[in-house]
Structure formats: structure tokens, C-alpha cells
Amino acid sequence: MAELAGLVELLEAARHGAGLPVYLFEGDEYLARHSARELADALVPEKERGLNLIVMDASAGAREITAHLVTVAMFAAPKAVVVEGADVFADEVDAERELIRARELWQGKRQRDAARRLLKLVRPTGWGAAEIAFGTKAAPSAAKWRKEVGAAPEDSDKAWMQELSAWALAQGLSAPPEDLEVLVKAVERGLPPKTHLILVAETLPAKHPLVRLAAVSGAHVKRRAERKGRTIDTLDISSIVEEELKPLGKRLARDAEQELKMRLGDDLRLIASELQKLAAYAGEKPQITKADVELLVAKVREEEFFALGEAVGDGDLGKALHLFHEELRRKANASAVALPFLGGVASAVRKALADSARYADTGPRELSYTEYQSKLFSAVEKELSEKKQKVPHPFGAWLGYKRARRKPRGFWRRCLIRCAEADEALKSGADQRLLIERLLTEVCAR
């Protein structure tokens, strides 16, 4: 793992009472958060953690974080304040990632943190707790979210966002103020003795005040999984395997590790979660085998979503059904497959609809790849960059252009409506397998 040696030194110093005022862990969310918690445990003795170890989300705001830091600990033992999700302090945030983070906080029963994060995301638009009840008549539409915020919730987000909105209204919550300078100045003046600030972020700009603060007053550690090559099989997950399995007395066979990476890609948090599930399934067996991984772990890598999007865009019903049936075979439970699979179909339909609109006036003749690159791709690249969306490879964009010409925009609009109807039917107790098969038949119609 990157920067592992530096982390070992920091942990050793912390255990001997030589902690620093500020630490910034930046990089992969799972690794950064895990390292921050490990450091906090090294700084604060176990018997004192109930009062002297505070874990909070950055959405609480800089003033509340500062209040915790400058409040002298009740006992003389070291005190640590761990602030997760510090990306929220960046001038420009990844709106889609912030939505995901809010959802995770809500599902993790951290209602206040989830509400604050979502309210902070929408504050520049002037929206409040009432407007984030996505799916209600008075709330902004998905199109409005995309235009004003930069990302839109999915239909599957309606339930928790409406619950969050009602909870925030009942609590009288609003977005916390932006007073990052208050936090920075408090640290620069000097924290109380044996008080430590531990920040966790996926990425912050190089000249961000918190990066500068860590460089001047403490340590900046980057935690990312290393690859020995370009392919997924070279990803080093040994640290995660040891952290999750060693305490349980389990091992992961080499071919099982390779299969796990091929199915999950480089989502380290998901890998850790699946390792826990595999360990429980293994029972008394000391080793997790490839067969265990094949049975329990569904393929969720980007390639799988690409394959589904390709099948939908090409109208390849056979391929789409095969992908669905493969998921059913691996999980043997339609309830665990249908809703995520529907999300993949809806995503492919939205992309096809966007491409159809984008290329509506590009002339009657289909352009070759070379012509597409010279005449159209630069405009697509500019459009997506301005929207802060991922720019595809030119060849992939050209394939989207070709598919967009095969069916009229009205077809994809109807398909999107069918996806919404399918989502409602799934949540109302419809037969999952039959419903998805019927939807694929309609969406892949030639």
C-alpha cells in the first residue's frame, strides 16, 4: 500500500505519546478511513475513548468541529477528533459522490450527518429541507437537480430522501455555515495539550487550506492501493485481506483472491465487505476458496455494467437476458438481483436518450469513426467537461453515436417510463424475474 511506511512510523509515535496536532489521510475511502481510525486508537487509550475519541462527519461544519477541538478533555488523557468526508470543504465537490455519501450516512442511521451533507450540497441553489424530498410534487425534478446541483438522484432514492427531508424539517436543520477559516485559525493558534485533529478525505486540491495545515502542523498521508501492472489482477489487496480475515483465523486462496478482484474491481470497501461475508460463509473452514467466491460474490465491475449498457443500446435481447440469468444463478435470489439490475438498465436507457438528443441534428449520413472524431467529438468533450461529467474514449462515444441513430428519441423516452413503472412494481411485490425479463424484452426491441 502507498505510504505504508509513513503510516507505520506515525502509529508507533502515537503509541509512545508523540502525536501530532493534525493528520490528513487522503486517498481511497476505505483505506483512509481505516487508517484514521487505527491512528485514533493509537492516540487515545481504550479506557478513555468513550469521552475522548470523537468521530464525526465534516458536514457538521467547521464551527462545530472547532468547538470539539478547543474544548479541553474532561480527563488528562489524549483526545482525538476524527472528521470523515472532509472533501465537503473543497470549493468544488463531486455532486454524485456527495449524494452517495449522504445515502450511506442515512442507511447507517447517521441521520443528522446525512441531512447536513445533503443540505450543504444543495445550499448554493437556495433549496432547503423541503426541496430535498425528491419524488414529491413540490420538490425539484431530476432534470432540475442535474441542472442546478450537477447530479440527479435515482428513482430508488425517493424513499430515503423523503424520509430525510421530513426528519430534517422536524429537527429544524439547515446547512452549516462555511467557516473553514475558523477551524484553520484555531489549529494555527494551537490546540489544547494532547488534542489531535484527524481529517479523512478522498481528494482535496493541492493548495487547499486543510492540505497546507497538515503540511505545516502535522502529517499528510496518502492511502491508495498499489498496482504492479495495469490490469486488475495486479491490484495489491493483501493489507485488506489481512485486516479482515486474520482476526477470524481465515485465509484467502490465491485463485480465490484473483476471482474476487475480477468480480469486484478496485472498490476496496466492497472487497472488505465481501470478505466479511465470505468468512461467515466459510464457517469452520480455515480457507476461503475460489468456489466460495463464485457462489457468493456477484460481478459488479465496470465491465459488467458496460456489457449491460451495450446489450441495451444494441437491442441484443439474448445478451441482456444472459447477463440477468447469470446474476440469478450466482445469487439464487431474484430479490437481491432485480433492483440493482433494473438500475443498470435505467442507466443504459438514460445514456441512450442523452445520446439521441445530443446527435439529433447531425445529418442523415452516418459518420465514420475518423469523421466523428474530427466533426463531433470535440463538442461532446467540451459539453461533458463543462458539466463535470466523465468524458468517454472517442471510440466508445462513436459507438454511442451509432446506436443513437438506430432508434428514435421517443422510443427511449417510453423505455425510461417503463423503467420507472418497473421500479414501482418491484417495490409493490411484483414477480421480480418475470418483470425484469419483460422489461428487457421491451427495451431491447428492434
Descriptive labels:
446 residues, alpha/beta, Rossmann fold, Helicase, Ruva Protein, domain 3, Zinc Finger, Delta Prime, domain 3, 3 domains, 5-stranded parallel beta sheet, two-stranded parallel ribbon, 21 helices, 58% helix, disordered N terminus
Structure report:
The structure is a single chain. The protein has 446 residues and is an alpha/beta fold. Helix 5 (95-107) packs antiparallel against helix 6 and helix 17 runs parallel beside helix 21 (432-443). It has 21 helices and seven strands. The chain has helices at residues 4-15, 29-43, 49-52, 62-70, 95-107, 111-122, 142-148, 158-171, 180-189, 209-217, 238-245, 254-264, 268-282, 290-296, 302-314, 317-331, 334-358, 369-386, 394-404, 409-426, 432-443, and strands at residues 22-27, 53-57, 79-84, 195-201, 218-223, 251-252, 287-288. The strands form two sheets. It has a five-stranded parallel sheet with strand order 2-3-4-1-5, sandwiched between helices. The protein is globular and about 75 Å long. The two termini are 48 Å apart. It has three domains: 1-224, Rossmann fold, CATH 3.40.50.300; 232-296, Helicase, Ruva Protein, domain 3; 302-443, Zinc Finger, Delta Prime, domain 3, CATH 1.20.272.10. Mean pLDDT is 84; it is low at 1-5.
